[in-house]
Structures are given as structure tokens and as C-alpha cells.
Amino acid sequence: MEPELAIGSVPVSIAAKAYGKDPCWVRAGLICGWLPIGNATRNGKLVTTIEEMDSRLGRINYYISPKLLYEQTGYAWQGER
Predict the structure, then answer these.
(1) CA angle 26, 31, 34 (to 5 degrees)
(2) pLDDT digits over 39-62, tens only?
(3) For residues 8 and 5, what is the distance between their CA atoms, to the nearest angstrom?
């Protein structure tokens, strides 16, 4: 039975702890597509290359699915920080 998971995105820092990695590793994985737990967008458009991480282009929003993170790592996001 799956645990109750919070609604909304898991913070990058929490996902990084679940994987035992740096938050930059999570961001790069979301952007490049090799970490299939969410996506990265800027102004409503998907960000799919590391070159697009340039902060001069604007803020990138990261969405990490609580369900996909749980399936990958066993970490159940409850909404706590």
C-alpha cells in the first residue's frame, strides 16, 4: 500500500537528499531527462538542455512528482521541509 503523499512539487533540495546527491545533480537530471521524476520549465516552456540553465535567460521552475520520487527512491514526501 502506498503512503499518503503531499500534493504539489517536491523541493529540489528534498529530492537531492532522497538520492544522496547535490541539488545541481537533480536539476541537471530533470533538464536533460535522465532523471524521470519531473520536469523543468521557463515561461511555460520545457527546458531540455544544460545550455538553457543560463540564469540570464530567466528563472527555471522545477516540478518533481511526489509519486515518481517515491517510486524511484521509496521517499514519501509529506509536505514537510
Answers:
(1) 70
(2) 999 999 999 999 999 999 999 999
(3) 9
